[in-house]
Write a structure and sequence with these properties.
It contains 7 helices and 4 strands. By secondary structure, it is of the alpha+beta class. It folds into 2 domains: 135 residues, no CATH class; 72 residues. It has a 4-stranded mixed beta sheet with strand order 1-3-2-4, with helices on both faces. The longest helix is centred in the C-terminal third of the chain and has 34 residues. It is elongated. The chain starts with 7 loop residues before the first strand and ends in a 23-residue tail after the last helix.
């Protein structure tokens, strides 16, 4: 992408499992005015049930965790317009989830469905370990919700400890059950303060999420086209 100089750029895996014969159809959609034309797999031949089901769960879970609408059942096989390529190169991140960033850029896009055939030769270069890293990069790059888990769990733990303490006091006062003296109060207090610690960690996580956003240094917005403006006088001369 850094060295491609055409009006449009096609990204395709070297193993050709994604069929090159779909590219002319992508070009047709591009000529119709779409800036991103992505290949969407309607069927995946030669892949294990485990890979298919985990991929399906991953893409749908990612869309639940992020505010960016990332098309499901798609890979990196796509055609992007020159302005999309230029905007993508400005996103200067080291661990980049490309298909997510392209969706985040917000250009006009459309899908071209195709059947992904069985691998002709060789083996995948993405074993389970790499797929897990790929999934974590995608989630961490586009969602702060995992950081919020500490807040939610801390609130739940504090609330549960309070209810537990009330129930224990009632049982003790009415002599419904006998407990070891001091045991219930110690457990309830420990749960309560552990909940408070998790709440504080959740608040810290919120600030870390903001710092992470700033560190990624993504542009605040990307302009698709300027009308009646001098591009040389636009913000930074490029947006």
């Amino acid at each position: 992408m850094d060295y491609a100089s055409g009006d449009a750029v096609v990204v395709i895996d070297a193993d050709l499992q994604d069929p090159p014969e779909v590219i002319p159809e992508m070009l047709e959609k591009w000529r119709e005015g779409y800036d991103v034309v992505y290949g969407q797999r309607i069927k995946r031949e030669g892949e294990t049930f485990f890979k298919k089901i985990t991929a399906k769960i991953f893409y749908r879970t990612l869309n639940k965790l992020t505010d960016v609408e990332i098309p499901v059942d798609t890979g990196d096989f796509r055609l992007i317009d020159r302005k999309v390529c230029d905007a993508l190169k400005k996103v200067d991140e080291k661990n980049r989830y490309i298909r997510g960033i392209i969706s985040w850029l917000g250009f006009k896009s459309i899908a071209v469905p195709f059947v992904r055939e069985k691998r002709f030769a060789g083996t995948t270069k993405y074993p389970l370990k790499k797929m897990l890293k790929f999934a974590s990069d995608a989630i961490v790059s586009f969602s702060h919700k995992p950081l919020k888990l500490a807040t939610y769990f801390g609130f739940f733990l504090s609330f549960a400890s309070f209810i537990y303490l009330i129930v224990t006091i009632i049982l003790k006062v009415f002599s419904i059950i006998k407990t070891v003296p001091g045991w219930a109060s110690i457990v309830a207090i420990n749960l309560f303060f552990n909940g408070i610690i998790l709440l504080i960690l959740g608040i810290i996580g919120e600030y870390i999420g903001r710092i992470y956003d700033e560190a990624k240094n993504r542009p605040l917005y990307v302009i698709r086209e300027l009308v009646n403006f001098d591009e040389s006088k636009s913000i930074n001369g490029e947006r």
